[in-house]
């Protein structure tokens, strides 16, 4: 099985907006979040946005797609 890597850079704000409007978190979205989280420094604003996304997933407001 071939895995695809996403090399496009998307801001966390754009990602949040896209995910919130669609109501689902795709594999590509999760990969982009992972890339952001692996940075040596994450600004507090980005961390808060990521926390909001994860909270929405836990509450069932967003669906995680495979």
Q: Could you characterize the architecture of this molecule?
A:
It is a single chain. The chain has helices at residues 12-22, 27-37, 44-59, and strands spanning 24-25, 63-64. Helices cover 58% and strands 6% of the residues. Strands 1-2 form a two-stranded parallel sheet. By secondary structure, it is mainly alpha-helical.
Strand and helix map with partners:
Blueprint lengths: L11 H11 L1 E2 L1 H11 L6 H16 L3 E2 L2
Parallel strand pairs: 1-2
Please describe the structure with a list of short key phrases separated by commas or semicolons:
66 residues; mainly alpha; 6% strand; disordered N terminus
Number of strands: 2
Largest sheet: 2 strands, parallel
Mean pLDDT: 88
Low-confidence stretches: 1-7
Q: Give the terminus-to-terminus CA distance.
A: 15 Å
Strand content: 5-15%
Shape: globular
Produce a short descriptive summary.
The chain is mainly alpha-helical and 66 residues long. It is built from 3 helices and 2 strands; from the N terminus they run αβααβ.
